[in-house]
Design goal:
Blueprint: H1 12-22, E1 43-45, E2 48-50, E3 56-59, H2 62-65, H3 74-84, H4 98-110, E4 117-121, H5 124-141, E5 149-153, H6 162-165, H7 171-174, E6 185-187, H8 201-219, E7 223-228, E8 232-233, E9 239-240, H9 244-255, E10 259-263, E11 287-290, E12 302-306, H10 308-312, H11 333-348, H12 351-365, H13 367-370, E13 375-381, E14 384-389, H14 396-406, E15 409-410, E16 417-420, H15 428-445
Parallel strand pairs: 3-15, 5-6, 5-7, 7-10, 10-11
Antiparallel strand pairs: 1-2, 2-3, 4-12, 8-9, 11-12, 13-14, 14-16
Helix pairs in contact: 3-11, 4-11, 8-9, 12-15, 14-15
The protein binds pyridoxal-5'-phosphate.
Length: about 450
């Protein structure tokens, strides 16, 4: 008999066994689940996830950086429910609908000036694919078909489909597929942890920008675009850098006729303290990519915003000059309504301002963690915190994850880097719990 899903009959062990038998989980060596079991989740509320036995976990990583205003947020739920009664989906080629138009108009108002055209995908990686293809196709339409190459930062992450993987510099994700991709060049990351002794984050950023300049000088004739994660390189272990790098990169890309693609899939939607990270450098990229938090963490939606100049290079009588890319669920109305509700919450609750208060509060109460002798490079940008832990354990990340769960925390370190990227809905009690219990875990694992 097939067990039926209901809270009364469901239990943790039962669901784990069925999941391991039928579901191939992402980003996982499945055998590791023998020793570090999956965590079954029955429901979510605010910053908390609950299992079937009533245990709870503080979602300190916002369910892979997507959740902004808590699980089961009443306002986002209401918007999706309302949309469900009107139109769940319609194809966007040849058709349009109110939510996608409104969302595009509102994002155009909010984004750095000049990004007036939104092209939609579903996952973040598809937004990267869209920008790479659109950039190279732009140059082809503009009589420069030799501009087909890309550059990214060392340790960059832009997604894991084959095109996105070609500009992703994480060996663990890339090496097995080396034969399938055209590996693109990388330039040094301005991550301030690599700065020289006595060198400021800004000086180091400018030194890295000079290396970018040298690369552009030599290769610009074949370069379509430079893709970058503004201010924080997430998958690199929350590597943070000075905004002057982006200012200089913008100047250099304009000077050398190379597009600048700002991948704000993780850092957009207020994560770095401003709605878009690029604002802190006062720049407008040629492409701005969004996904993850855009729907408040509810539904898959991604988009690439771009300029009139790029849009008009495709606008012609000839079909083949157009951008013929598509995904089945492009601009899905339910996802767009979740995104509109998310933007409403930003405006109605003055979220960016409230987050500044939350961040300074957390920085105060996390002082004992920052000052702990096993903690290195404690850093913060907006609603992202990270630090390295000096540990005697080679499998620190998995031990930390397991100890976190015992302490009601969902912690998911990247190597020895522990990071917090909580939903903005986190309250002061929850922040205290997070700081205190993480300190305790660091003491056990140092
Ligand atoms: C997560 C992420 C992506 C890929 O998004 P998916 O939805 O996982 O495909 C791309 N770029 C950055 C910076 C990301 O953090």
């Amino acid at each position: 008999m097939i067990p039926r899903m209901s809270d009364s009959t469901q239990n943790n062990a039962d669901l784990l066994a069925r999941s391991l038998a039928a579901v191939w989980h992402p980003c996982s060596q499945m055998k590791h689940y023998e020793n570090y079991p999956l965590v079954p989740i029955a429901r979510g509320q605010g910053v908390w996830l609950y299992d079937f036995d009533g245990r709870r976990y503080l979602d300190t990583v916002s369910s892979w950086w997507v959740n902004l205003f808590g699980h089961c947020n009443p306002r986002i739920n209401a918007a999706i429910t309302d949309q469900l009664g009107k139109l769940e989906h319609v194809m966007l080629a040849g058709f349009t609908h109110e939510p996608v138009v409104q969302l595009s108009e509102r994002l155009r108002e909010l984004a750095p000036a000049g990004l007036g055209h939104c092209f939609y995908g579903s996952d973040g990686a598809s937004a990267t694919e869209i920008a790479l293809k659109m950039s190279a196709h732009y140059w082809r339409n503009s009589g420069k078909p030799q501009k087909t190459q890309f550059i990214s930062l060392q340790h960059s992450y832009h997604g894991e489909t084959l095109g996105a993987l070609s500009v992703t510099d994480v060996a663990l994700f890339r090496d097995a597929y080396g034969a399938l991709i055209t590996q693109q060049a990388t330039v040094p990351s301005p991550d301030w942890r690599a700065a020289g002794i006595g060198e400021s984050a800004e000086d180091f950023a400018l030194r890295c920008a000079a290396q970018l300049e040298a690369h552009l000088q030599r290769h610009h004739e074949h370069l379509a675009a430079f893709i970058v994660e503004p201010l924080v390189q997430g998958a690199a272990g929350m590597a943070m850098y000075h905004p002057s790098y982006l200012r200089r990169a913008r100047e250099l890309c304009s000077q050398y006729d190379v597009h600048l693609i700002a991948d704000e899939i993780a850092v957009g939607m207020g994560r770095t303290g401003t709605l878009f990270a690029c604002e802190q450098a006062g720049i407008a990229p040629d492409f701005l990519l969004l996904s993850k938090g855009i729907t408040g963490g509810y539904l898959p939606l991604s988009l690439a915003m771009t300029t009139d100049d790029i849009y008009h290079a495709f606008y012609a009588d000839e079909t083949a000059r157009g951008f013929l890319h598509s995904h089945s669920y492009t601009g899905n109305p339910l996802a767009c309504r979740a995104a509109l509700a998310t933007l409403d919450i930003f405006a109605e609750d003055d979220v960016l301002n409230a987050n500044r208060g939350k961040a300074s509060h957390f920085n105060r109460i996390a002082a004992p963690l920052r000052d702990h002798p096993a903690v290195r490079n404690f850093r913060n940008t907006g609603m992202i915190w990270a630090f390295e832990v000096e540990s005697r354990h080679a499998d620190f990340a998995r031990r930390c994850f397991a100890l976190g769960l015992q302490n009601e925390l969902l912690l998911r370190p990247i190597g020895n880097t522990v990071y917090f990227m909580p939903p903005y809905a986190i309250g002061e009690d929850e922040m205290s719990m997070l700081a205190d219990r993480t300190l305790n875990i660091v003491e056990q694992l140092q």
